[in-house]
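WARN retry 2 of 3 for item q-0093 after timeout on previous attempt; input resubmitted unchanged.
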Amino acid sequence: MRSRAPARLPQQAEKGRAAVTETTIITPEQAQQWAERFRTLISDLTAEVSAVIVGMEDVVRSTLIALVAGGHVLLEGMPGLGKTLLVRTLSDALDLSFSRIQFTPDLMPADITGTTVLWEKPGGEREFVFQPGPVFANVVLADEINRATPKTQSALLEAMQEHSVTVAGQTRCLEEPFLVFATQNPIDLEGTYPLPEAQLDRFLFKLRVDYPSLDELHEIMNRTTGHQVACARKVATRDELLALGPVVRQVAVAKHVQDFALQIVLATHPDNEGTPEPVKRFVSFGSSPRGAQALLLSGKVRALMDGRFNVARDDIKASANAALRHRMIPNFEGLAERIDPDTLVAEAVATAEARCEKDVPV
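OK item q-0093 returned
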């Protein structure tokens, strides 16, 4: 796999060929070609990441899905499990600019977005010059994001939603693609500030990073304590990654599949008719429409990963936990009982399946 030449998307394989846009009409033959090329490219990326990262297959796959879909990711796990290395490896394999922000209680918004400074020219003349902050990168790692104050956390809100920042009354656009990968510790509560619901909702996925198995630990030791250091080579460019976006949005979604995704989201609302009892009991607020967008966009990417140009219900189900676990806000009883949000998501999926059982089968 590592000796294979990097895959090239159709419009880049032939010089002068027009790029696909969201309004381009794709024939069935072209759709199959795009799906196969997409699958090859993702396979190359997965191979390069796996050359550095041991295990975490589901996390790597979900991270690649969010990357292609243009969504931000919240990684939750204990320190030392490779979250930072995963993000850095992805940026290396795609030749994207990378920056890391270590969030601490004394971090200020200007430390993230940048600030204007008084600059003296060689002739003695002075002027105010904008110094960009670390947010001006393609891939931004917000390490331990919940250690910063809400004021500092809010500095990322505009950047994550609008892909721009406003400093001193002037709005500056961020270079595309712009992706935030944030990490947080699930049990380290002292000195932390919980992320507000508005910011949680801006993450396409929330992924859990678990401890490696015994075999994976052996492989980690072999790779990290030996004389050779694994590294990822570039298999795609920034322009190739950007070209995937319009292709993803061209993937067909049948009405019964879209209805299935929407029924899942509706089943997360405690006040909705037909909502499962555990959701009514333990949830204060359900998913916003962004949850449905996350399900459909990630479903389209999963379909292309499997070489298909149409979304199936299984694609929606596969992304349900990652797309909704952070969008179901528990009430006091849910917090007291330490209810696993994945259990509530499973209840919502089961309810949606029951409602859609008369639809066209997968």
